[in-house]
């Protein structure tokens, strides 16, 4: 820890790299959110691999490692790859994933061939172009980092200014076209922004891992929200944290690449989001499913006791008529005792008055659900989902009156169903 703080405070190169990877992470997260929602995640991977031949061409043309020229070369072949994919998918029957695979393989293969050619040049051993494959942020100098910072900041600003247009064209391109948004130009602009983002980050993260930095923060953010605005902000934040933590982690030892640390940090955040996000996390889904299974088991058990028409029923008989696992049945029985729905005397179980009213509620709501499924057009006023969420004997007088009115309507339309509510005291329900 002391080593990290010492590097941050005293090492100018670490400070520059830290700022650049922070801005790169934010820009990648922001652009990656739209790429994910537009189902263009793999295009970033293709562009990243396609940037390699452009870098090699630029070095062969200049004869030296000029970072700005290398970025221009990478952007040129990256844009060419992106537009080639769009051209193939729009003019042929080849699907997008096949076109991406084809373009990625061809461009990356060309890049490896050119990289071999560069190594045979007199100045090739000093080129350091191998760093673009896996990334080497430590090799960046102040001038390179300033250029990266300016470009990353520009990407963030442009995306914020075009946020509304990108939002509309992402979710409803036909509507966007109808209200006069130049869809073709916007798609061209977004593809260009995506290419520039990839090109800016390949020196720090590398052509192989850049796609991960582009998409992983966006996927992690998607687990936490349904709002696009919140998702974009969270994705940028996760990308920035990944860039910062990955850079600091790589300072712990000599020869450690920054790019893999950044991607690993983003992956850890993604795994945490996938497991523990409140709505979509696997743990949350499992917990809700567990509670729902207990709720269904409670309904089955209470209805079985009510429909048995016996005041007391033995546990052995109950286990036969209720197909509930023993562990869950014991847990549900304990909960029903605590809520005063049932009574236990030795090996026998009985419903309390509250439990009988609960059973009548279950029977009523289940019956109404069946009616709603059978006659959806005739019963548009019947909102069964709200009834299922509430306890009928805890409804207010107004709610009870409204429910009674609905039952009267159903009874008039379908008298053979014999549905009625008794008074507030007994609350007997019949279907």
From TrEMBL:
Question: SUPFAM superfamilies of this UniProt entry?
Answer: ABC transporter involved in vitamin B12 uptake, BtuC
Instruction: Output this protein's name.
Output: Metal ABC transporter permease
Q: Does the keyword Transmembrane helix apply?
A: yes
Principal subcellular localisation of the protein: membrane
User: Which UniProt keywords are given for this protein, alphabetically ordered?
Assistant: Cell membrane, Membrane, Transmembrane, Transmembrane helix, Transport
The species is Bacillus seohaeanensis
Q: How does it sit in the membrane?
A: Multi-pass membrane protein
Q: Which Pfam families match?
A: ABC-3
Q: Which PANTHER family match?
A: ABC-TRANSPORTER METAL-BINDING PROTEIN (PTHR30477), METAL TRANSPORT SYSTEM MEMBRANE PROTEIN CT_069-RELATED (PTHR30477:SF3)
Localization per Swiss-Prot or TrEMBL: Cell membrane
Query: Which InterPro entries does this chain map to?
Result: ABC_BtuC-like, ABC_TroCD
Record family assignment = Belongs to the ABC-3 integral membrane protein family.
Q: Where are the transmembrane segments?
A: 16-37, 42-61, 67-88, 100-119, 145-163, 175-196, 202-224, 231-252, 258-276
């Amino acid at each position: 820890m002391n080593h990290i703080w010492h590097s941050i405070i005293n090492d100018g190169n670490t400070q520059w790299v830290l700022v650049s990877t922070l801005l790169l992470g934010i820009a990648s997260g922001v652009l990656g959110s739209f790429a994910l929602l537009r189902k263009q995640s793999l295009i970033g991977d293709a562009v990243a691999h396609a940037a390699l031949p452009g870098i090699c061409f630029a070095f062969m043309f200049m004869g030296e490692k000029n970072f700005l020229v290398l970025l221009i070369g990478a952007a040129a072949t990256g844009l060419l790859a992106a537009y080639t994919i769009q051209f193939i998918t729009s003019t042929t029957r080849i699907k997008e994933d096949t076109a991406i695979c084809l373009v990625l393989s061809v461009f990356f293969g060309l890049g490896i061939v050119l990289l071999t050619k560069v190594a045979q040049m007199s100045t090739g051993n000093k080129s350091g172009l191998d760093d673009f494959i896996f990334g080497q942020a430590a090799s960046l100098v102040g001038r390179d980092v300033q250029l990266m910072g300016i470009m990353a900041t520009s990407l963030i600003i442009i995306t914020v200014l075009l946020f509304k247009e990108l939002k509309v064209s992402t979710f409803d391109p036909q509507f966007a076209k109808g209200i006069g948004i130049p869809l073709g130009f916007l798609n061209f602009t977004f593809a260009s922004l995506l290419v520039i983002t990839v090109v800016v980050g390949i020196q720090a993260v590398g052509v192989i891992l850049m796609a991960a930095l582009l998409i992983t923060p966006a996927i992690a953010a998607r687990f936490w929200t349904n709002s696009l605005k919140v998702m974009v902000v969270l994705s940028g934040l996760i990308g920035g944290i990944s860039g910062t933590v990955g850079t600091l982690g790589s300072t712990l030892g000599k020869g450690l690449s920054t790019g893999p640390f950044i991607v690993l940090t983003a992956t850890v955040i993604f795994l945490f989001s996938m497991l523990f996000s409140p709505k979509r996390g696997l743990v949350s889904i499992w917990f809700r499913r567990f509670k729902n299974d207990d709720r269904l088991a409670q309904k089955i058990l209470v209805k079985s006791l009510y429909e048995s028409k016996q005041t007391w029923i033995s546990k052995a008989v109950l286990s036969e008529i209720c197909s509930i696992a023993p562990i869950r049945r014991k847990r549900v029985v304990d909960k029903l005792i605590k809520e005063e729905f049932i009574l236990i005397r030795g090996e026998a179980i009985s419903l309390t008055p509250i439990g009988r009213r609960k059973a009548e509620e279950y029977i009523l709501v289940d019956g109404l659900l069946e009616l709603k499924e059978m006659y959806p057009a005739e019963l548009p006023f019947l909102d069964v989902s709200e009834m299922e969420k509430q306890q009928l004997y805890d409804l207010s007088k107004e709610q009870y009156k409204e429910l009674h009115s609905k039952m009267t309507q159903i009874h008039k339309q379908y008298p053979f169903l014999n549905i009625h509510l008794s008074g507030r005291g007994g609350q007997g329900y019949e279907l």
